[in-house]
Amino acid sequence: MVTITFVQGNIVEQHVDAIVNAANSSLLGGGGVDGAIHRAGGPAILDACRDLRASHYGKGLATGKAVATPAGRLPAQWVIHTVGPVWRNDPADSALLASCYSESLRVADGLGAKTVAFPAISTGIFRWPLEDAARIAIETVRETETSVEEVRFVLFDERAYEAFAAQVR
Ligand code: AR6
To answer: How far is the CA of 97 from the centre of ligand 1 (A)?
Structure first.
């Protein structure tokens, strides 16, 4: 069974097999955690993303899907890019946020990754309320069949850390 852990910190510093990026469908970078990952990992990540756009992902990556690239200079080996939904208070979108977690774990399994770090997908620029995002994230990880041994939620600030950690108390 997967062990779920929580740390408050910066996802780019995590020594895990794969870190997950809260990307956008262009796969070509952005702000928030996406910007931090590309800055810290260097141009190899963007090069790999451009290759994806030039091959199987000509139209970009759909919301709720995930795809991996190498991690450049990061301590992790892989970056799994996923696209969360923008919050618009439509309950149907919860399945898309859940899909980000389950699809990322499916991609991690394909890579043979045993340790995977996730940010709080959609809770920044995409405005998803933290408590609801935390509930969906943890329920989905618990319910997904995976060979990943540790899922580490890396929360940038104390409020996000508390929202996630509260889910398992
Ligand atoms: N490490 C861990 N968590 C972080 C870091 C970091 N270095 N930086 C920010 N967070 P966001 P989204 C937290 O906005 O809402 C980009 O432009 C942050 O506090 O990064 O899914 C993409 O290209 C928040 O809790 O992602 C997309 O266009 C969480 O990570 C769009 O933003 C997610 O915030 C995606 O928006």
So the answer is: 14
Q: Which of 16, 37, 101, 156 to mutate to test the pocket of ligand 1 (most atoms within 8 A of CB)?
A: 156
Q: Can you give the CATH number for the domain in which 37 is found? A: 3.40.220.10
Q: What is the pTM of this model?
A: 0.99
With a 6 Å cutoff on the Cβ, whether 41 touches ligand 1 is no
- Whether 12 is in the pocket of ligand 1, judged by its Cβ within 6 Å, is yes
Chain segment 25-45, per-residue pLDDT in tens: 999 999 999 999 999 999 999
> How confident is the model over 64-78, as pLDDT tens digits?
999 999 999 999 999
In this structure, what are the phi and psi dihedrals at residue 54, rounded to the nearest 5 degrees?
-85, -10
Q: Of all helices (H) and strands (E), which one includes residue 118?
A: strand 115-118
Ligand 1 center from residue 118 Cα (angstroms): 11
The whole-angstrom separation of Cα 46 and Cα 27 is 8
Q: Identify the domain containing residue 24 by its residue range.
A: 3-168
Count of structural domains, the chain: 1
